[in-house]
Amino acid sequence: MSVLVTGGAGYIGSHMVWELLDHGEEVVVLDRLSTGFDWAVAGAATLVVGDIADQELVENVIREHEVDSIIHFAGSIIVPESVSDPLGYYLNNTVKSRSLIESAVRCGVRHFIFSSTAAVYGSPKHFPVGEDTELRPESPYGTSKMMTELMLRDCAAAYDFDYTVLRYFNVSGADPEQRTGQSTKGATHLIKVACETATGKRPHMEVFGTDYDTPDGTCVRDYIHVSDLVNAHYLALKRMRNGKGSLVANCGYGNGYSVLEVINAVKDVAQKDFEVRVSGRRPGDAVAIVAEAERCRQELDWKPRFDDLNTIVEHALNWENKLARRNRE
Ligand SMILES: NC(=O)c1ccc[n+]([C@@H]2O[C@H](COP(=O)([O-])OP(=O)(O)OC[C@H]3O[C@@H](n4cnc5c(N)ncnc54)[C@H](O)[C@@H]3O)[C@@H](O)[C@H]2O)c1
Ligand SMILES: O=c1ccn([C@@H]2O[C@H](COP(=O)(O)OP(=O)(O)O[C@H]3O[C@H](CO)[C@@H](O)[C@H](O)[C@H]3O)[C@@H](O)[C@H]2O)c(=O)[nH]1
């Protein structure tokens, strides 16, 4: 029996592979290497290079590796890019997920975990945001993920199949042992960008909008350490294997930090000042979003280990320094 990790050469997927291997699971990764890297996949996992919508390939992999569960990370992830390329996002995130789900159903895969996002909520009026809040995505990215959630709900009702939808808030940090981290080229995520600026890879960075209705005028997010996030996936897998059925749960800590607070944390931890320029709002950005995180703790018995912004930043910086050393060698 093995677990198929789609997008396992990417940032979060490569951490998932280590989490599964650390728990003694057999792992097969399917990734087309569009934003991921073959070297990011742990050597003990099998890497198959290909697209999730190649049904012949996917179904062969499922049968050959006796896949009982799929953890589906593969997708396109940049909110503003989805605003300018909605068709690309609906294709890669929605249409291709449908194809993967169909392959799973045809091959009798029993458990499916899906990377959803806080972006399905848009900018909710009340905080923290519980799972039963109305879904009102404000970007094609969020809508593309919401549509996949709905397909999973309907498929679980029709076929012999359980699913877990995990709605991630802002994923950041890196493996504390530095076995993997975020290596994305041309990264757009705030903590990654700030760490690249702190380590001199970028001359300066920008703050997108200081005129929001928030305490310091910048957007507020709930940053979750990637190692805690992938641990929630492992617990969700165990829960489904124990016959507990389908689940939709937020993955965040319930703490909101503004863009400026995050940048200051990076400056403090790196002990470095760097240039920060103020620019206009970025299309598709929600104003503020913070998770109600109780369901994940209760249903999965999830006990986060890195719920601390400075620790997240420290691990992200360690990985950035490792990448910089690697590039110099
Ligand atoms: N990073 C975050 O803050 C965040 C937050 C919420 C949800 N998510 C979701 O988590 C998942 C993983 O995100 P990430 O940050 O690791 O991104 P990433 O870009 O590092 O990883 C995505 C991986 O999927 C692969 N991929 C993309 N399309 C594919 C396809 N059609 N077939 C095969 N492989 C394909 C890419 O090569 C890459 O390795 C995504 O689904 C994303 O929407 C991420
Ligand atoms: O150089 C930068 C980068 C970001 N930001 C701001 O920082 C905040 C966070 O942005 P970012 O790190 O890009 O994350 P989000 O746009 O919130 O989206 C992330 O978090 C979502 C969940 O909340 C996921 O679904 C997405 O995949 C993931 O990209 C936003 O207000 C951005 O405008 C800046 O001001 N400057």
Automatic annotation (TrEMBL):
Its EC number is 5.1.3.2. It comes from the Bacteria. InterPro entries: Epimerase_deHydtase, NAD(P)-bd_dom_sf, UDP_G4E. GO terms for molecular function: UDP-glucose 4-epimerase activity. It catalyses: UDP-alpha-D-glucose = UDP-alpha-D-galactose. Residues 3-252 form the NAD-dependent epimerase/dehydratase domain. Pathway: Carbohydrate metabolism; galactose metabolism. Keywords: Carbohydrate metabolism, Isomerase, NAD. It is an enzyme of class 5 (isomerase). Its cofactor is NAD(+). Homodimer. NCBIfam families: galE. Belongs to the NAD(P)-dependent epimerase/dehydratase family. This is UDP-glucose 4-epimerase. It comes from Nitratireductor kimnyeongensis.
